[in-house]
Design goal:
This protein is of the alpha/beta class. Helix content is about 40%, strand content about 20%. Helix 1 packs across helix 2 and helix 1 packs across helix 3. The chain is rod-shaped and about 105 Å long.
């Protein structure tokens, strides 16, 4: 049974006139009558009582009519769902992100996306960069906000934000009252940083800057997340170097100072699967780029 046969049947059943139904369907009357016969033959029963003066539904036709309407309605809804999903207006979007993205790109971009595409279900997953790259390649997330490098043939990325790195000192530190500092003054201080595998781009940038400043970057503490790093600083156990967007953490217990020499910055990238970028992911990518170009 084809959907067109059901459409023809419903038109005739509602008009109870083959000529009017044919005009409504914008087809000739003889092909319409022929297709109704095909449907009746397929079902093995008559759907209409025909005479020169009238057309009426048989009992089988009367019972088929609400089912045919429901089937056509469901088919139309299914087609609309597929169309909307293909245009990024329906479906599901899973976003991976690093902690600092919560304080820069992520909230505004998600808010704009929800305003424009309320039919898309959004899921947020905090993940380190390496986890995001693997999840993108396996199609477990649709887009990621991460720190480069992105070293995977199946994953593409673009920079969306460059922000300075700042020194995070306990508020009671001897240098906490300064307006800025040179990185070399942190030589010999207990240092809290990620293990390199959790953020190679960030750690490599910090290590290179420490080398330029004349000392080796050798962390005393290596917590697995940024909140724990800053907890070490707030507790007076260590100093750290973090993206400037995290200055809201422990604002009373931590003093965040610009680093004048060497000047340090870190990029945030938007990443997606090169082979399976969904329409929703493309829409989100456009919004992120627009969001940051307006900053």
């Amino acid at each position: 049974m084809e959907l067109r046969h059901l459409r023809y049947f419903v038109a005739v059943a509602e008009e109870l006139h083959f000529g009017r139904a044919a005009r409504r369907l914008r087809i000739a009357q003889p092909p319409l009558s022929q297709q109704i016969r095909v449907l009746e033959d397929e079902l093995g029963t008559a759907l209409f009582i025909r005479s020169r003066r009238m057309v009426a539904l048989t009992e089988a036709g009367r019972l088929l009519l609400p089912e045919a309407r429901a089937t056509l309605g469901q088919a139309a809804r299914a087609a609309e769902t597929a169309r909307a999903a293909g245009q990024g207006e329906r479906g599901r979007l899973v976003i991976g992100f690093v902690t600092s993205a919560c304080y820069t790109v992520l909230p505004g971009a998600v808010r704009r996306f929800r305003e424009r595409y309320p039919g898309v279900e959004i899921h947020l997953k905090e993940m380190i960069p390496a986890e995001q790259v693997s999840a993108l390649a396996r199609r477990e997330i649709d887009v990621g906000l991460l720190r480069p490098p992105v070293e995977h043939a199946e994953v593409h990325s673009i920079p969306v934000l460059r922000e300075p790195l700042v020194a995070a000192l306990p508020s009671g530190h001897a240098k906490a009252g300064k307006a800025w500092l040179d990185l070399k003054v942190l030589a010999g201080e207990p240092l809290a940083l990620f293990p390199r595998r959790h953020g190679p781009g960030l750690i490599d940038a910090i290590s290179a800057a420490c080398h330029t400043a004349g000392f080796v970057c050798a962390p005393t503490y290596e917590p697995n997340d940024m909140q724990s790093i800053l907890a070490h600083v707030a507790a007076g156990l260590a100093v750290s170097i973090v993206p400037a967007s995290l200055r809201c953490f422990h604002a009373e217990a931590i003093r965040y100072l610009p680093i004048r020499r060497p000047r340090m910055t870190i990029d945030l990238h938007l990443a997606w699967s090169a082979s399976a970028a969904s329409a929703a992911a493309v829409r989100f990518r456009d919004i992120v780029q627009n969001e940051m170009s307006a900053v």
